[in-house]
Amino acid sequence: MLIQQAHEVEEAINNGDIESIRNDLDFRVLTSIIESNRFDLVEIIYNHFKDTEPMEQLIFNAVVESAGVDITPTAIQCLNFLKSLDKEISYEFDDEDALYHMCQIPGRVELFKLMLDMKADIPWGYVLQVSCNFICRDTIEFLIANIQVSNEELNLAFGYLVNASVTSCYHENSDQTEIISWFINKLNVDVNLTTDSDYGWVYLDCFINAPNAAKHFYVERFNSGIINSEDFWAKFIEAYLEDQKFKQAFAQAFEDLRNSSIDLTELATLFDRLGHDALAKELLN
Q1: Rounded to two decimals, what is the model's pTM?
Q2: Record's superkingdom (predicted)?
Q3: Cα 163 to Cα 165: distance, rounded to the nearest angstrom
């Protein structure tokens, strides 16, 4: 009989047939047990198979898989249990899909702390990128404070932060705005970063996606020439003139641009070339 669910495991144990689990003993069975919040079953299985199966890594894998659905007390118990073992085990996990889901679940930071304590080999740069995409502030702050992040990983994460899938230009996300400022002013991220987006620059992505945060780019190291993208403004102006709600969303961004020390002469000329000299006077003067 194929054993996959926690109740089937419990039935086999109660029938004195725990060995029947061996052929089906993978992290999926353990994941079901953890999701069912049955640490007692985890202990029984571990003690029976620990000398013949890689139980520690299987339990670790199951914790991460289950955390993509819910972070149960058993998930925390399992990692604390693994930590308590007097074994030098190098835990590793590289299933990005499972980590992607885990990053969105409340309580994730407690698990990440335990994994870091265990010196688990996790693609932390990827976890940071996903956390930025979903504006998971607690996770972002924890990772920046506790892991070594390369400049490349930081720049990638910044791109995900600016283009976060959970925000829009119509409703400012204060966490997103503050973290963008933090990345620029405290972490010295590259404000002239190119991206694979439609507009090619992280600044332009920020202006269109998080307009009230664009002001944080206006630092000394910013290449103001990035602003003068004809393709960007041609598309922007079309939307701006056609949608009153869109227009209102960018009022503060243009005020911030006017109040910056950037010379907007070339941008005004670009507006004029596109046939919108009156709009240039309205927005840029």
Answers
A1: 0.91
A2: Bacteria
A3: 6
DSSP notation for the chain:
----SHHHHHHHHHTT-GGGGGGG-SHHHHHHHHHTT-HHHHHHHHHHHTTTS-HHHHHHHHHHHHHTT---HHHHHHHHHHHHS------B---HHHHHHHTTSTTHHHHHHHHHHTT-B--HHHHHHHHHHTT-HHHHHHHHHHS---HHHHHHHHHHHHT-TT-BTTB--HHHHHHHHHHHHTS---TT-B-SSSSSBHHHHHHHHSGGGGGGG-STT--GGGG--HHHHHHHHHHHHH-HHHHHHTHHHHHHHHHSS---HHHHHHHHHTT-HHHHHHHH-
Compute the chain's Rg from CA coordinates.
25
Using one digit for the tens of pLDDT, what is the confidence trace for 34-90?
Answer: 999 999 999 999 999 999 999 999 999 999 999 999 999 999 999 999 999 978 899
User: Measured in Å, how far apart are the chain's first and last C-alpha atoms?
Assistant: 76
Spatial contact of 170 and 245, defined as CB atoms under 8 Å apart: yes
284: left (phi over 0), alpha (psi -120 to 50) or beta: alpha
| 196 or 25, which is more confident | 196
Angle at 168 between CA 146 and CA 135, to 5 degrees: 15
Residue 176: pLDDT above 90? yes
Neighbours of 101 (CB within 10 A): 17
Q: What span, in angstroms and rounded, lies between the C-alpha atoms of 267 and 101? A: 42
